[in-house]
Amino acid sequence: MPPPPPESDRTARENHLRQRAIEIYDRVTESQSRFVRVDELCRRAAAAFPDLLPSDAALAEEAPRLQKDKRGLEIDQGLFLSAVLADPAAGGHLCHAMLLPHPHSQARLAEFEQRGSLDLGGARVHREGSAVVVTMTNPRFLNAEDESTLEPLEVAIDIATLDRQSEICVLRGGEVTHTRHAGKRLFGAGINLTHLYQGKIRYLWYILRDLGLVNKLYRGLARPEVAPEVDGVEKLWIGAIEGFAIGGHCQTVLTLDYVLAAQDAYMTLPARKEGIIPGAANLRLERYVGSRIAREAVLAELRIDCASPEGRLICDEIVPAGAMDAAVSRTVAKLTGAGVVSAAGNRRAFRIVEEPLDSFRRYMSVYAREQAHCHFSPALIANLERNWNAASRRA
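Now predict its structure.
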C-alpha cells in the first residue's frame, strides 16, 4: 500500500472515499443483505479496494509502533466509516449489525447458563438471584478499558441481556491491585492511557466500543429480522459507581437506567487532556446536566462529585461508604418486585424521544471522522506526555 497522503490531500481523499463508500459497503454486505461488523467490514473492504483502505499486512506492520510513530493509515478507515454512517440506509444497517450479539456470545451464553458464572478475562458475569451482574476487570490499570477488555465486556453484556434466568442487569467495577487503591472496587478509569500512548489501541477500538457494547447497554440487543427500534432483547441496567467513573466509564454511566453512587465517588471526562472525543458523551451528557455544564465537563475538565447537585442529576441514589452491596440488592428488589414486563417498552419509549437511532447514527458519522484525526494527532501525544507522564509508564 502506498504511504498515506499528506494532510493537504486529506480533503480530496475524504471526498473520494465518501463518493465510493456506499459502493464499497454494498459490495461487502451484498447490497445490505448481510450484517457485517465494523472490523470485518474494514478488512473485507480493504481486500476488495486495496487502493482506498489499509490492508491487514499494512496494519500488522504498523501495530508494533508507538502511537507517535504511526503513519496514520487508519485515518482512512475513519473516513470510510464516517461516509457509511452518514448515509441513512447504509449507516442504519451498520448500526443494526453492531447491535446484534457478538459472534462469540452464543457459545459463552450456553456455558454461562450451565454454570451461572463466567470469567471472560476483561469482564466477569454471574447471577445473583433475579439479577445478572457484569463486573468490569482490569485490576492493574484501575479497570481501564483497552484491547484486552473490549471483546470480553461486549460478550458479558450480551450474556447478561440474553440470560433467560434473570430479570435485570447490574454493572460494577471489580477490585483493583494498583498500589494506591489496592483492594478497592472502582467503577473505572476510562481508556488505558498507557496503552494508548504505546500504540496498543487501534483506531477501530473506539468505533467497536461505541457502536457495540456501549450502545447495547443503551438499546439492548437487536434481532436480525426487525429494525432495532421496533423490537429487540433488553433489560434494565443498574450501575454502581464506586471510587470514580472517569472518561469512558463516565460515558457508560449515561446509558444506564438506574445509577447508585458511593458518597465519595466522582465522575470526570478528561478528553481535552487526552486529546480525544469522549465517545457519545457529547451527545448524551447535556440531557442530564444541561449544555453549559456538559461543555465545562468535556472542554474544561469539570469534576462532577456524585453527591453534588450536578452529580445528583446523573445519579439516582447516593450510598454511604461500604453500603453498596446492600444498596444494589435493595434496588434490584425494588425494580423487579412488580415484574419487569413493561421495562423494554418503557426504555424504547424514552429512547425514541431522547435519542432516536438515526440521531445516534448521524452523531457517530461525525465521531468516526473526528476521532480518527484525534487518534493520530501530535496533540494527543503532547497531551499524554504533559498530563499523564506517559513516556515513563510501564505496559
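The first helix runs from residue 10 to 29.
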